[in-house]
Structure formats: C-alpha cells, structure tokens
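Key result, reporting period 2: structure in, sequence out.
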C-alpha cells in the first residue's frame, strides 16, 4: 500500500467566470517511510496539493488516494475523522486557539472530532506533549501572549 497516490490529478479554482488551473494532470506515488518535499515557485500549486493530501479540499478530477482511501469520497465530517486518525500538520504559523490552554489545544480534536472520553484524552495529551518535550509555557495557561 502506498501512503499517497495521485492519478491524473487536477484542481481548478473558479471564481465567477474566471478559472485558475492550479494542478494539471499530475501523477505520483509516495511510499511509506519516505521523506518528500514539493518544491516550486510561488503559485505552482504546492499549497493546493497539500490541501488535497490533507483532505482539506477535493480534487476537480482524477484520483487522489491517501492510505488507499479515495479522498473525493469523504464528506466534511468523514474527512475530519480521517485527518484526526491519520494526518499530522505543521503549519507555517501555529494555528493555536489563543483562548485555550496548551493542554486544551492538544485535546481539542480528541474532544470535538474523535469524541474520546476525558481520561483517555488526558492520557493521550500528556503522552503527546512528553513526546515533543516539555512546553515552555505551563500546560494549563492560555496560549495567547
Ligand atoms: N482559493 C483560490 N481561488 C482561486 N485561485 C487560487 C486559490 N488558491 C490558489 N489559487 C491559485 O492557484 C494557483 C496555485 O496556488 P498555490 O497552490 O497557492 O501555489 P503555491 O502554494 O505553490 O504558491 C495560483 O495561481 C493561485 O493564484
Ligand atoms: Mg503555498
């Protein structure tokens, strides 16, 4: 099983009469345990591609499979679940929710999307935070500066 496979993948944005072709018939495969970078000038479609691999947006045509799931078949709710189970993002900015604490930020998707019970969430949050090192800010203070 490949991690990601694209076949004749296209993405076209439409705003009114204007069409922008961001991805035009792309084919590629990403194998497990590989390290891949998409490199190209501004406007070449990197973010468009990552948004689709991250199940944040749908292809216009062609197929894109992530872990053998055709992402075009996922509605918003199913996509949210799929992301929660399988995909990690490191955004350029942190996209933390400033009114929540460090603990609550990590806990949020487990609570709102995965709907795990409190004790299971607490154990997972502590495990994840320990895995990336102790945060500089106390766990239970708000992330807003
Ligand atoms: N939401 C959008 N609506 C219309 N056009 C878009 C949208 N997002 C990106 N584009 C266009 O799609 C092309 C690819 O953009 P993008 O994926 O952001 O490239 P990159 O991340 O490589 O800079 C560009 O021409 C950009 O202007
Ligand atoms: Mg970009």
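The corresponding designed sequence is given below.
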């Amino acid at each position: 099983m490949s991690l990601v496979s694209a076949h004749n993948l296209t993405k076209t944005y439409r705003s009114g009469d204007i069409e922008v072709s961001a991805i035009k018939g792309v084919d590629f495969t990403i194998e497990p345990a590989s390290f891949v970078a998409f490199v190209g000038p501004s406007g070449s479609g990197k973010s468009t591609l990552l948004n689709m691999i991250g199940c944040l947006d749908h292809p216009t045509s062609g197929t894109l499979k992530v872990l053998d799931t055709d992402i075009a078949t996922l509605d918003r709710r199913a996509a949210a679940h799929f992301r929660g189970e399988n995909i990690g993002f490191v955004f350029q900015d942190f996209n933390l929710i400033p009114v929540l604490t460090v603990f609550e930020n990590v806990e949020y998707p487990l609570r709102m999307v995965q709907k795990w019970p409190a004790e299971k969430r607490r154990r997972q949050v502590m495990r994840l935070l320990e895995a990336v090192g102790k945060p500089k800010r106390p766990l239970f203070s708000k992330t807003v500066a």
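Residues 44 and 92 are 18 Å apart (CA to CA). The longest strand covers residues 18-30. This case is discussed further under Risks and Mitigation.
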